[in-house]
Write a structure and sequence with these properties.
The chain is an alpha/beta fold and 349 residues long. The protein folds into 3 domains: 180 residues, 3-Layer(aba) Sandwich (Rossmann fold); 64 residues, no CATH class; 86 residues, 2-Layer Sandwich (Alpha-Beta Plaits), CATH 3.30.70. The chain has 8 helices and 17 strands. A hairpin with a 2-residue loop joins strand 1 and strand 2. The longest helix is centred in the last third of the chain and has 21 residues. The protein starts with a strand and ends in a 7-residue tail after the last strand. It binds zinc ion (ZN) (2 copies).
């Protein structure tokens, strides 16, 4: 068996929560268990909700021959792939909202094999239509964007299968869902930030909590991860215990203070020069005041370029940053050096 089953008792009812190990599955998107439940429930005319944890930066178009991924000209993100109301494909930058044509040929090697990659709601919907002969309803920000509109949309359509993004983490009013399927429960963990586990946990935990009468299937490539396991067991305390161990070990808040200084500019060289200069000054003062436990390092943010500006961070992590920052403000004349200072940062990206 490629899955484990957990029970969560609420109001004398047992919710079943299945955790599927996707590493052992043949089909990358739909585990055997998911296929089995879709067959069973659609025969019984029951309702299925499929949540696709869609992260736009994990998808785009790629040339299958040379691997080229077209990027936005203003931002360091791939152009993501959409269909307009008439079903025609177009490219979109989710940061600066620039629209692009999807090139018929690869701009680099002229190959015709330019294809979308990542998990697309439309792809999932097409697969379901081919396999089960059911046209699912799609709920995403392009079709609807508020709880009321979702409710209206659902009243007009009568498909047993609803597919959507995180908009569906809150159940649709007056619409009973019998099973909720998380297609890719661990996508949120791929973000290089210390809050990733916590965000991923609450995404699952709160959704399971809100659907009162449904069962759940959680598909994961990392089923041992504490954020996934504790969510499937609906055990918030267990999650928090493990998250505390992790934060303590790597010295993240609340076990230390975190300050992020961001510099951005159109000229890349200027970003490097200014960040490097301040970084050296900070290291000098760290040494001077023998703040051995303090960590000071530079790192690019998750998105290196936004709206045509390059960006770089200086991270300061330690027990008593406040005093150090007060000194730095004066000594390094921080107020006129164009750094954006977040003295109580809740993220390093
Ligand atoms: Zn852009
Ligand atoms: Zn190519």
């Amino acid at each position: 068996m490629n899955y484990e089953q957990f029970l969560h008792k609420i109001n004398n009812k047992n919710k079943k929560i299945f955790l599927v190990d996707m590493r052992k599955e043949e089909n990358y998107h739909f585990s055997e268990l998911v296929q089995e439940w879709i067959r069973k429930y659609t025969k019984q005319n029951k309702n299925i909700t499929i949540i696709v944890n869609k992260k736009w930066y994990a998808s785009g178009v790629i040339c299958r021959d040379c691997g080229h991924i077209p990027q936005c000209k203003n931002c360091s993100v791939s152009i993501s792939y959409h269909n307009d109301q008439q079903g025609h494909p177009f490219g979109l930058c989710h940061i600066c909202k620039t629209h692009y044509d999807i090139p018929p040929k690869c701009p680099k090697c002229q190959s015709n094999s330019i294809r979308p990659y990542g998990l697309w709601i439309q792809q999932v919907a097409d697969r379901i239509q081919q396999t089960y002969n059911i046209i699912p309803d799609i709920i995403d920000t392009q079709t609807v964007n508020s709880p009321n509109k979702i409710k209206k949309h659902k009243q007009q359509k009568h498909s047993n299968i609803t597919i959507g993004t995180s908009l569906l983490t809150t159940p649709i009013k007056n619409y009973k869902t019998d099973i909720v399927i998380f297609l890719n429960a661990d996508l949120g963990l791929n973000i290089p930030d210390y809050t990733a586990a916590s965000k991923n946990f609450f995404f699952l935990y709160e959704t399971i909590q809100q659907y009162k009468d449904a069962h759940f299937i959680v598909q994961s490539f990392d089923p041992e991860h504490y954020s996934i396991r504790s969510a499937c067991k609906m055990n918030k305390e267990a999650f928090q215990r493990e998250d505390e161990v992790y934060r303590k070990q790597y010295n993240y808040p609340p076990y230390s203070d975190l300050c992020v200084l961001l510099y951005k500019h159109e000229t890349e060289e200027r970003v490097y020069a200014n960040v490097d200069k301040l970084h050296k000054e900070l290291l000098y003062y760290k040494e001077k005041y023998t703040l051995d436990d303090m960590e000071i390092y530079t790192t690019p943010p998750l998105i290196y370029k936004k709206f045509g500006k390059y960006r770089y961070n200086i991270i300061i992590k330690g027990k008593q940053i406040k005093n150090f920052m007060d000194i730095i403000y004066t000594k390094c004349k921080l107020h006129n050096r164009w750094f954006k200072v977040d003295r109580q940062a809740d993220s390093v990206i």
